[in-house]
Design brief:
heterodimer, A: 112 residues, mainly beta, 6-stranded mixed β-sheet, 4-stranded antiparallel β-sheet, 52% strand, globular, B: 115 residues, 7-stranded mixed β-sheet, 11 strands, 56% strand
Chain lengths: 112, 115
């Protein structure tokens, strides 16, 4: 069965520093991969997605992610974090017809 | 913009009550989903509907049922609420296009407390 692992429960980054959030997936074929962000008290918003093609995917808010098949990873990156990026981030993988399996999330804290 | 709305942001109910959570989407999406979100557990799928009157159990359907009488509306029902159903409930919708799963659009969530 498909699964997603986000090994970091919390990450603290200084404002202006770079960010990398880790995501590892388990899936036999070429996966459909997503990153979502959830601001406090809100629903989830899509940051970016990967279906095929270029393994470096650009998303909204300056985020990007790189699909690495050999490592079964889809890590999210941002070169310079802003205080407004503090939120919870979820990685997800396609799991059969139209369903997604989500990771347990990584909470990002941004220090001044 | 796609909009997914949920009937309540916060709800407080008593143990044993029947609870209805409503979700409406305005983009003519075929698929609708109900998740519950708990700290440290991420999002877990309760039920999924791929068409009117069609439903499929997710990973944690016990204690829940759903109804989809119209394409734009998907209801989650707690037949007899229990304290372990205190949680954040998220509704989502998506198109059925292409070979794989599409982006899901989420509502703001309903935080349900069962006393």
């Amino acid at each position: 069965a498909q699964s997603v692992t986000q090994p970091d429960i919390h990450i603290t980054v200084s404002e202006g520093a770079s960010l990398e959030l880790r995501c590892n997936y388990s899936y036999g074929a070429t996966p459909y991969l997503f990153w979502y962000v959830q601001s406090p008290g809100q629903g989830l918003q899509l940051l970016l997605k990967y279906f095929s093609g270029d393994t470096l995917v650009q998303g909204i808010k300056g985020f990007e992610a790189e699909f690495k098949r050999s490592q079964s990873s889809f890590n999210l990156r941002k070169p310079s974090v802003h205080w407004s990026d503090a939120a919870e981030y979820f990685c997800a993988v396609g799991a059969g017809f139209q369903k997604l399996v989500f990771g347990t999330g990584t909470r990002l804290l941004v220090s001044p | 913009d796609v909009k997914v709305t949920q009937s309540s942001r916060y709800l407080v109910k008593r143990t044993g009550e029947k609870v209805f959570l409503e979700c409406v989407q305005d983009m003519d999406h075929e698929n609708m989903f109900w998740y519950r979100q708990d700290p440290g557990l991420g999002l877990r799928l309760i039920y999924f509907s791929y068409d009117v009157k069609m439903k499929e159990k997710g990973d944690i359907p016990e204690g829940y049922s759903v109804s989809r009488e119209k394409k734009e509306r998907f209801s989650l029902i707690l037949e007899s609420a229990s304290t372990n159903q205190t949680s954040m409930y998220l509704c989502a919708s998506s198109f059925s296009r292409g070979a794989g799963p599409n982006e899901q659009f989420f509502g703001p969530g309903t935080r349900l407390t069962v006393l």
